[in-house]
Predict the 3D structure of the following.
Amino acid sequence: MEPRRLPLPPLGANCYLLPNGPQGLVIDPGGTPEAVLSACQRLGFQPAAILLTHGHFDHVGGVAGVLERWPELPVYCHPGDVGDDPGDFTWQKRPAWKPLEEGQTLALAGLELKILHTPGHSPGSCCFLLEDCLFTGDTLFRFSVGRSDLPGGDAGQLAASLTRLAALPGDYRVFPGHDGPTTLDQEREHNPYLQTLPV
Ligand SMILES: [Zn+2]
Ligand SMILES: [Zn+2]
């Protein structure tokens, strides 16, 4: 499975498209839903669900626009990031919302994802494991990590979440919420923030 990265304005957050035959998944449709819709069309698939690594606007800004095209599409997000804030869509009122849970396995579009709740950047931040891919949202970046000083952030929780990611068995291709991809081994070795974690 080859994730397609689609950086979207206004902040260049990565939307990932996971085509699997005629179906597929969309992770973090930030701004400009038109770009997401036309990419799905170009890749020849219809999404079976939207998954959100967390609720910040640069990762969810295009959800409403994608739902206009496919109103029945389920939108998965951890309840920790579903509220009346920040620039959100009052998620609870949307029938499309489905809560993500720690340890959950989701079978969608013929793909199987494992959900890791990794709070710290935001209360509801999650990472997704899919085959040899790890989608880390704003928790882990290439040679960097997410901020924990935004509302709802928590430096201690972020450190615990990063420790957990670093302890995953084996290597993964890592697809972060901003900037380019990396691998978990590369981050274990070179990411300065992972070197200073409590063990
Ligand atoms: Zn964020
Ligand atoms: Zn972000």
Q: What stands out?
A: Residues 34 and 65 are 8 Å apart (CA to CA). The first strand starts at residue 4 and ends at 8.
